[in-house]
Amino acid sequence: MTAVAENEKILTPEIDAFIAKWIDKPGNLIMVLHRVQEEFGYIPRQAAFEVAAALDIPVAKIYGVITFYHFFKLTKPGKNRIAVCMGTACYLKGGQNLIDECERKLGVGLNTVTEDGEFSVEAVRCIGCCGLAPVVTVNGEVFGGVSNKQMVKIIEQFEDK
Questions:
Q1: Which of 79, 120, 140, 154 has its CA 20 to 30 A from that of 42?
Q2: Cβ atoms within 10 A of the Cβ of 105, count?
Q3: Does 102 carry a binding-site annotation?
Q4: Nearest to 129, CA basis, from 69, 81, 88, 70
Q5: Looking at residue 24, what DSSP letter applies?
Q6: Which of 105, 36, 107 is nearest to 76 (CA)?
Q7: Residue 25, exposed/middle/buried by CB under 10 A (0-12, 13-18, 19+)?
Q8: Over the stretch 106-121, which tens digit does the pLDDT of each residue have?
Q9: How many helices (H) and strands (E) would you count in the chain?
Q10: Are 154 and 111 contacting, i.e. CB atoms less than 8 angstroms apart?
């Protein structure tokens, strides 16, 4: 394991306290990784090393968990995170068309960030709003029954913020 120099430390005291609370509990790694991602929007490399040291586990195990579960991210998302639902109902009602529209409007593919760092686009599994299909979230705000034209307007709405 790699020692973490104090001046390189990026985990906050709140995350350290969270780790201390979960240190001896089963499933602690997943809970800690969720908390780290909640703080940063992704799992920074340095954070993975710090978590490994705090939980006394190999960094390889942390990366194994991060890469196994689709909800953990290793790259920093855009300021505005667009998530297009690709669950069955949303897919059948045009979810892929919304992804294509985002790519056209923003000039980026899935799981990438615009050059200015403002937007990232990801496909996600069921958001749980099937009756509103197709569904998109931007920074957690839910938009239902979204058409391609509405997708462009939603993006423009967040460009102005």
A1: 154
A2: 18
A3: no
A4: 88
A5: T
A6: 36
A7: exposed
A8: 999 998 999 999 999 9
A9: 7, 4
A10: no
Residue 18 token pair: 């969270």
Q: Which of 8, 22, 20, 18 is nearest to 38 (CA)?
A: 18
Of 83, 86, 64, the C-alpha closest to 141 is: 83
Q: Distance between CA 25 and CA 46 in Å, rounded?
A: 23
Residues in the chain: 161
User: Is 90 annotated as ligand-binding?
Assistant: yes
For 123, phi then psi, to 5°, come to: -90, 135
pLDDT, residue 8, reads: 83
pLDDT at 98: 98
Alpha-carbon span 10 to 123, nearest angstrom: 29
Q: Is 129 among the annotated ligand-binding positions?
A: no
Closest by CA position to 73, among listed 47, 108, 106? 47
**Which residues are bridge partners to 80 per DSSP?**
119
Q: What are phi and psi of 127, to 5 degrees?
A: -85, -20
Helix ranges (DSSP H) in 23-111: 28-40, 45-55, 59-68, 88-92, 95-106
Here the tokens at position 38 are 């909640």
**Which 3 state secondary structure label does DSSP give 119?**
strand
